[in-house]
Known about the structure:
Largest sheet: none
Strand content: under 5%
Mean pLDDT: 88
Low-confidence stretches: none
Amino acid sequence: MPGSTDGSTRTMGVLTVGGLVVVTAYTVVLGSNGWLWFGWVVLGLITLALIVMRT
């Protein structure tokens, strides 16, 4: 079915959103860390690629 996601794509989406929350909290409490943001962007791009390949 077009537009539906399988379990692994949904899990990656949850991890990406959870990662954003963690990186944002870290930035607020301890200050910005470029490597954390870089890692989150890479995770987001991988998730986006999974979504695009799935549709």
